[in-house]
């Protein structure tokens, strides 16, 4: 039986466990994407609201059924299979449940005994990390519910919510979203489906919808750490993606009625904790603003709006004066505007931070060339090629600078003529200085 190993998430409110998710070239930063897999927590015994029995895409039992042969191929054995359950007693063994026997035939709401057993088996498989097999059990229970004709939408909702957790664990974010939405259509403020759907949206990089669901979770229960972390992550993503107007592009965040909010008694934080939170919030806000300004500068460069880009990069350096990439980016803007002295200064600053930064050497070489300092330009280009001999731009530039050096008189030897002060010479009697200080001849009389 195939068994996935995933990072175990931290407990959150209402959940047992959950997680958050050269020149030559590029001017901007690559974005860090969130984890493709989230955790919606283990299956819940009390869930949201009812929905019909339509099977979700990818939810059939055949799709996820594992044959005994595959179980053996993955390290299981028939003996371990026999230890998993005791069919005669309807109980899983203590070894399967960490030392506590589980009654797989325990009643589950209004579900008929066969469906209740499928649900209990799914819960047990989920707890042991066998998510594909648990998903199979929940799918069979959902199909059995539709075939039985019973009317217990609350129990059906639990099955959908639990199966959504399996989809999320199994990396099937789209089907997770569909199952969560089935629940939320009838009970819009069910916390677990909202949190799981937010994580699924985030893994699909649908950040605006993820933000709305995370914020809705926090309206229900402000103490859910996974939602707090999710809001922080998504805010940074949206600032970089949409710029300062990112809030205007969000879907509406639904207001949560007072009856759906979970009121928890929160102990007052100490002064140290409050100070730490304030400092972290300030750092996070500064990081978000820095990333947004840098991205705006990169976008302006792509539009050839170099003067405006310089302003953005300058603001970045006021916040973080140790960012080498910002110096080299601003140097490029100065080069495009033929501000060679400023470009050289930025490259000097970048090389103090990173002494082997090829981009800084290359752009400083261009600045030296603009300043007609061909010797210095040649030296920087040679350093670029020493660091990476494959940089063709540097090779071509070096050839041109070498030609300019040969044509330039700056490296030709010059004759040095000593200069003597007139005042240091003995003046003959037949010379005198005029009132204006000019030496003139004086006619000698016999």
TrEMBL record:
It comes from the Eukaryota. The lineage of its organism: Eukaryota, Metazoa, Chordata, Craniata, Vertebrata. Residues 42-51 have a biased composition (Low complexity). SMART domains: TPR. Transmembrane segments: none annotated. The keyword Cytoplasm applies. One of its GO terms (cellular component) is cytosol. It comes from Oryzias latipes. Pfam families: TPR_1, TPR_8. Residues 14-26 have a biased composition (Basic and acidic residues). Keywords: Cytoplasm, Repeat, TPR repeat. Residues 1-106 are annotated as: Disordered. The keyword Cytoplasm applies. This is Sperm associated antigen 1. Residues 1-10 have a biased composition (Polar residues). TPR repeats lie at residues 324-357. It is found in: Cytoplasm. Signal peptide: none annotated.
């Amino acid at each position: 039986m195939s068994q996935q190993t995933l990072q175990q998430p931290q407990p959150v409110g209402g959940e047992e466990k959950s997680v958050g998710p050269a020149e030559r070239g590029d001017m901007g930063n690559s974005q860090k994407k969130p984890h493709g897999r989230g955790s919606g927590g283990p299956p819940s015994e009390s869930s949201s609201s009812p929905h019909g029995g339509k099977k979700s895409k990818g939810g059939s039992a055949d799709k996820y059924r594992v044959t005994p042969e595959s179980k053996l191929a993955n390290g299981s054995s028939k003996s371990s299979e026999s230890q998993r359950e005791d069919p005669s007693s309807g109980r899983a063994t203590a070894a399967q449940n960490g030392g506590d026997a589980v009654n797989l035939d325990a009643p589950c709401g209004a579900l008929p005994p066969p469906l209740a057993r499928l649900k209990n088996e799914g819960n047990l498989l989920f707890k042991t990390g066998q998510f594909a097999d648990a998903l199979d059990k929940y799918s069979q229970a959902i199909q059995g519910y539709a075939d039985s004709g019973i009317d217990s939408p609350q129990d059906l909702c639990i099955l959908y919510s639990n199966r959504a957790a399996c989809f999320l664990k199994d990396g099937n974010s789209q089907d997770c979203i569909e199952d969560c939405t089935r629940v939320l259509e009838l009970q819009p403020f069910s916390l677990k489906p909202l949190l799981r759907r937010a994580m699924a949206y985030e893994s699909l990089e649908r950040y605006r919808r993820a933000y709305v669901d995370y914020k809705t979770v926090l309206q229900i229960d402000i103490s859910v750490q996974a939602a707090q972390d999710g809001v922080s992550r998504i805010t940074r993503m949206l600032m970089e993606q949409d710029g300062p107007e990112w809030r205007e592009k969000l879907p509406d965040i639904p207001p949560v009625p007072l009856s759906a909010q979970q009121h928890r008694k929160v102990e007052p934080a100490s002064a140290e904790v409050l100070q730490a939170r304030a400092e972290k919030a300030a750092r996070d806000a500064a990081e978000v603003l820095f990333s947004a300004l840098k991205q705006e500068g990169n976008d302006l460069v792509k539009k050839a709006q170099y003067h405006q880009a310089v302003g953005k990069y300058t603001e970045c350096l006021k916040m973080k004066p140790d960012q080498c990439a910002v110096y080299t980016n601003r140097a490029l803007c100065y080069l495009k505007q033929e501000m060679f002295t400023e470009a050289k200064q930025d490259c000097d600053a970048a090389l103090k931070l990173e002494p082997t930064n090829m981009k800084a050497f290359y752009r400083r070489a261009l600045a030296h060339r603009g300043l007609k300092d061909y010797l210095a330009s040649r030296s920087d280009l040679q350093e670029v090629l020493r660091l990476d001999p494959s940089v063709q731009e540097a090779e071509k530039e070096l050839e041109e600078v070498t030609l300019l050096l040969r044509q330039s008189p700056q490296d030709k030897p010059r004759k040095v003529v000593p200069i003597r002060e007139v005042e240091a010479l003995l003046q003959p009697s037949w010379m005198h200085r005029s009132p204006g200080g000019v030496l003139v001849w004086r006619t000698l009389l016999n």
